[in-house]
């Protein structure tokens, strides 16, 4: 574990580089809050609202900054104290084979990361979100959600990890087999998650009959978009922020609306927001996004297969031999910068898709105004950044900034 080891240098640059990149984007984003608000956004973000946004985003950035700093310090501390070697040696004392030992290592490190993030999650939920009027999560719900998440990680994540470790431990074509396995698993979870996983955390209730339900089914019929049911989700148990999503494929499609969306938006706005979501389907965004994800996953797994064959890679983290389970964890450190680069393409494509879905929705409902009003209300109510810095947008925004979306909608010819 010295500077003569290129893997050690690459990992150190990756860790410090990503930390400082995030730090710079956070700082530049906060600085942009001092810019004058253009006329198009003035009605959404009057000065009183801007004061709230500045304080909200500054508080959120403080939590993120502290969390990143503590995580970096913990990683470097464990790394340079030989902690990864100690964890591996301890796991091997249980006498299991290399695959089960690798899964134990993965479980221990994932659990440690989860526990390390819990105080910051609580700070964000009961500090920042509560201070600014968004949080409705009780301590009991917070604890329950985290216990459920850990249980699902153990029940689903550990068997998946066991299969992946087995492939890379024994199969020469491990990257290909793992790619096929994860692709199939992703498709399976797309079907199972809405039915069996989401209800563990959220309560889904059938929407009551009325004008809104009739308008939703009329829109679906008009756009030839089969919908099996419309559900209302108890999002208000955790946050005052509004949301909506589609789940399922084909004739099993389900529309889920957060109760907070129903409370804060008009019927016309909700229909326009759903037309936007239908637009993603009609514009074939889902298969495009899945294809891009599969390509990225293939590149990552190919690199992983190459890295796991290098004893010097493991030596850079104070390990002897080439233990696959630990290698899977440590590869994530090295992959961070490349992951950001590949993520830039995915985020750019996602923002482009949002523009297309906006245009589709405007044409579907016969006017851009309902969606415009809905987006304005969401941005105002969620205290969104009116003019985020381009670096922050490139790194994290899957949706275009509100100003760009409104300008594009104004140009749509219905």
From TrEMBL:
Q: Which GO terms describe its biological process?
A: CAAX-box protein processing
Q: Where does Zn(2+) bind?
A: 276, 280, 354
**What name does this protein carry?**
Peptidase M48
Domain of life, per lineage: Bacteria
Needed cofactors, names only, are:
Zn(2+)
Q: Name one Pfam family in it.
A: Peptidase_M48
| Gene3D superfamilies associated with the record | Metalloproteases ('zincins'), catalytic domain
PANTHER family under this entry? CAAX PRENYL PROTEASE 1 (PTHR10120)
Spell out where the chain crosses the membrane.
Answer: 6-25, 70-89, 95-116, 150-170, 176-197, 288-308
Instruction: Alphabetically list the UniProt keywords.
Output: Endoplasmic reticulum, Hydrolase, Membrane, Metal-binding, Metalloprotease, Protease, Transmembrane, Transmembrane helix, Zinc
What the record notes about the co-factor is: Binds 1 zinc ion per subunit.
Q: Which family does it belong to?
A: Belongs to the peptidase M48 family.
Give residue ranges for domain CAAX prenyl protease 1 N-terminal. 31-203
Would the keyword rRNA-binding be found if you checked this record's keyword annotation? no
- Topological relation to the membrane, as annotated: Multi-pass membrane protein
The places in or outside the cell where this protein is found are: Endoplasmic reticulum membrane
Catalytic residues (UniProt) = 277, 358
Classification lineage: Bacteria, Pseudomonadati, Verrucomicrobiota, Verrucomicrobiia, Verrucomicrobiales
- Domain (Peptidase M48): residue spans on this chain: 207-411
Look up keyword Acetylation and say if it applies. Answer: no
Q: Which organism is it from?
A: Brevifollis gellanilyticus
Q: Where is it chiefly localized?
A: endoplasmic reticulum
A GO molecular function annotation here is: metalloendopeptidase activity
């Amino acid at each position: 574990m010295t500077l003569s080891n290129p893997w050690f240098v690459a990992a150190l640059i990756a860790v410090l580089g990503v930390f400082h990149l995030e730090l710079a984007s956070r700082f530049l984003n906060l600085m942009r809050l001092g810019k004058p608000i253009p006329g198009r956004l003035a009605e959404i973000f009057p000065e009183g609202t801007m004061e709230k946004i500045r304080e909200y985003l500054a508080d959120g950035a403080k939590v993120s900054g502290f969390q990143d700093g503590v995580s970096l310090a913990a990683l470097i501390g464990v790394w340079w104290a030989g902690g990864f070697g100690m964890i591996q040696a301890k796991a091997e004392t249980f006498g299991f084979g290399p695959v089960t030992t690798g899964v134990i290592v993965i479980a221990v490190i994932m659990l440690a990361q989860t526990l390390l993030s819990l105080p910051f999650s609580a700070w964000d939920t009961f500090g920042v979100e509560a201070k600014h009027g968004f949080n409705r999560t009780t301590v009991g719900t917070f604890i329950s959600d985290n216990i459920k998440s850990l249980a699902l990680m153990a029940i689903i994540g550990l068997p998946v990890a066991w299969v992946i470790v087995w492939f890379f431990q024994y199969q020469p074509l491990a990257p290909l087999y793992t790619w096929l396995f994860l692709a199939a698993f992703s498709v399976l979870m797309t079907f199972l998650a809405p039915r069996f996983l989401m209800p563990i955390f959220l309560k889904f209730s059938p929407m009551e009959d009325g004008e809104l339900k009739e308008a939703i089914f009329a829109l679906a019929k008009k756009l030839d978009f089969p919908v099996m049911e419309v559900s209302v989700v108890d999002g208000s148990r955790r946050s005052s922020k509004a949301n909506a999503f589609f789940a399922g494929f084909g004739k099993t499609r389900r529309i889920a609306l957060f109760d907070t969306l129903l409370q804060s938006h008009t019927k016309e706005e909700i229909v326009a927001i759903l037309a936007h979501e239908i637009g993603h389907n009609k514009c074939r965004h889902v298969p495009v996004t899945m294809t891009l994800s599969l390509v990225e996953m293939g590149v990552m797994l190919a690199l992983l297969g190459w890295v796991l064959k290098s004893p010097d890679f493991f030596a850079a983290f104070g390990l002897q031999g080439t233990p696959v389970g630990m290698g899977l964890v440590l590869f994530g450190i090295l992959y961070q910068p490349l992951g950001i680069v590949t993520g830039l393409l995915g985020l750019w494509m996602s923002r482009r898709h949002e523009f297309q879905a906006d245009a589709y929705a405007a044409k579907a409902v016969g006017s851009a105004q309902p969606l415009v009003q809905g987006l304005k209300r969401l941005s105002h109510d969620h205290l969104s950044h009116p003019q985020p810095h381009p670096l922050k947008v490139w790194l994290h925004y899957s949706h275009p900034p509100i100003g760009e979306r409104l300008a594009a909608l104004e140009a749509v010819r219905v």
